[in-house]
Design brief:
- This protein has about 250 residues and is an alpha/beta fold.
- The protein folds into 2 domains: about 170 residues, 3-Layer(aba) Sandwich (Rossmann fold); about 70 residues, Helicase, Ruva Protein, domain 3.
- It has 9 helices and 10 strands.
- The protein is globular.
- It starts with a strand and ends in a 14-residue tail after the last helix.
């Protein structure tokens, strides 16, 4: 069953059309990944879903109702949480305080939010010892885990993850993707934007490829891994270079 359906979605930044008639769906309790080079439109897709950019045309259906044109706060209340690229940890707050901010949409007491944050720290054992440390003192990988934990504090039905492995050491990337698999196991649906195509396809149930703001391919991970164009463009084999375009 489709939890999210995007229908003929287009987004413009001034004169630039960043997305052109994109249609895709994300089934409940699945991990779906969006692949593509820098500027292909992957991040714009997530921003449109979370209400950060308005669609030029098309529709976004979540749990059977249109959310196109709603603001970010209304979309969070409906059960969508967006973890953007770049971590964005508040440096003057502790790790626990950063995580607690993610529950701002929930009508809970401070003590209940603190208990929920402690549950998140159990899910992310690499940052648990630093619960009372300031956010800026953590490594890049640890800050990424704080960002994902903060997104999960909203108890979303759908978690949007934008480049969670960007700039991380390979051993930390492995940890991040183990956590994504655990998030799915716990029942949260994930829409993942990721340039590490090989790792993304390992955890995904389905994948889509964007180029120049257009959806060019979709399929099961095994099928995409057998596609020579995908292999050469995104998995490091062959001579075809990823297509580079503006409006990511």
């Amino acid at each position: 069953m489709a939890l999210l359906e995007i229908i003929d979605l287009s987004v413009r930044y001034g004169e630039i059309e960043a997305l052109h008639d994109v249609s895709l769906q994300v089934n409940e309790s699945s991990v779906v990944t969006l692949l593509g080079s820098n500027g292909a439109g992957k991040s714009t897709t997530l921003r449109a879903i979370s209400g950060l950019v308005p669609p030029t045309r098309g529709d976004i259906i979540f749990e059977g109702a249109s959310i196109a044109g709603l603001g970010p706060e209304a979309i969070v209340r409906r059960g969508i949480s967006h973890v953007p690229e770049g971590r964005r940890v508040f440096p003057g707050l502790s790790v626990r305080e950063n995580i607690m901010l993610g529950a701002s949409n929930r009508k809970l007491s401070t003590s209940a939010i603190r208990r929920a944050a402690d549950d998140m720290l159990e899910l992310f054992p690499d940052i648990r010892p630093f619960a009372n440390a300031l956010g800026w003192t953590l490594s890049g990988g640890q800050q990424q885990m704080v960002s994902v934990a903060r997104g999960l504090m909203a108890q979303p039905r759908l978690l949007l993850l934008d480049e969670p492995s960007l700039g991380l050491a390979p051993v930390i990337v492995q940890t991040v993707f183990r956590i994504i698999a655990e998030i799915q196991r716990r029942g949260t649906t994930v829409l993942l934007v990721e340039q590490n195509a090989r790792m993304a396809l390992k955890v995904a149930d389905y994948g889509y490829v964007l180029e120049s703001g257009r959806l060019t391919l979709g399929g099961k991970p095994d099928d995409l891994l057998r596609d020579q164009d995908i292999v050469s463009a995104y998995l490091g084999a062959g001579k075809r270079a990823p297509v580079m375009h503006g409006g990511s």
